[in-house]
Amino acid sequence: MRLRTAFLTLIFFLVATSCFAFDWPKPNEADYTIKDFQFANGDKLPELKLHYLTWGEPKRDAQGHVTNAVLILHSTGGSSGQFLREYFAGALFNPGQVLDVTTYYIIMPDSIGHGKSSKPSDGMHARFPAYRYTDMVKTQHMLVADHLKVDHLRLVMGMSMGCMHAWMWAEQYGTMMDGVMPLACLPVEIAGRNRMWRKTAHDAITKDPEYNNGDYAHPVHGLGTAEQILQLVGSNPHERQLKYPTGEAAMKFMDETATNAMAHIDGNDLAYALDSSLDYNPEPGLSQIKPPVLAINSADDLINPPDLGIFEPAVKKVPKGRAILIPETDKTHGHGTHTYAEFWKQYLQEFLQQTDH
Hints:
Helix 5 runs antiparallel to helix 9 (267-275). This protein has an eight-stranded mixed sheet, with helices on both faces. It is 36% helix and 15% strand. The chain is globular and about 60 Å long. Helix 2 (89-92) links the parallel strand 3 and strand 4. The protein is an alpha/beta fold. The protein has two domains: 23-189 and 279-354, Alpha/Beta hydrolase fold, catalytic domain (Rossmann fold, 3-Layer(aba) Sandwich), CATH 3.40.50; 193-274, Rna Polymerase Sigma Factor, Chain: A (Orthogonal Bundle). It has helices at residues 2-21, 89-92, 133-147, 161-172, 192-206, 222-233, 237-243, 247-264, 267-275, 311-316, 345-354, and strands at residues 28-38, 44-55, 69-73, 105-109, 155-159, 180-183, 293-298, 321-326.
């Protein structure tokens, strides 16, 4: 009897935790293959694969234009999978929530070099074309317009790298969207400390003696250092102090960070991703952006610190731009706050209402 009770308790626990872990609608998953794609630097691939997720179905008006599509773009080193969390998908996509998938058609691509899309670790290693944000945004647009036949976007939303891509969408394809919501970035060239930490992490990988021009036999140890750098800039000091209040705990976390990186991340993939932003600079075109822009940053973001004095003045150059700075609290996560919908979903709700034509 005790054994049966214990077994039933275990089954209940597994079912309950499984339901909690996946408490949002299941997406559709597919690939889009682009033949003979030419990168901005002139390099070509016979086939470039973009992996993507979708929820819901496109709805069209009397003229045949899609009215409910939302494009969501991920961060550096991430993928569409980073959004499959209770604090994002579970807080946005369920019935009655802000991006209810029975109302909206959600599109989430894995950008070039990320997730299940074409990337250096597929086999080309450091012979993979040196892609840039220009290439990533171009292929995102091809996925949306050419493959999915979506000619209008209700919203473009992006986090971190996706935030910068969203600014580029606003400038290049502004006429096909109702609004743009970039989270956790600045609409200016990446320079200063932001460029410095990226170069440091990149060089930790590519200048490691084990790198061997990208043809390493096992993960280079510099990859662990690169991931440690990302952990430092992606969090906030208060959160780290609370979670790791002793020197031993802090060192243990960083050792585990390096070990996990060596086991689960490819060095070429990360090095390429860090360099992909070298062509990013939307600042000259901010005054020409046509759609409304709701830009959201966090006060405790070490990558885009507000004391630089760049964020609000840059957004003011956008004719219909608005800047929101989320204040630091004991619950925010530094740069990573962008993926926690609880901090900004009320602004998203208001923005959707304001841009509803």
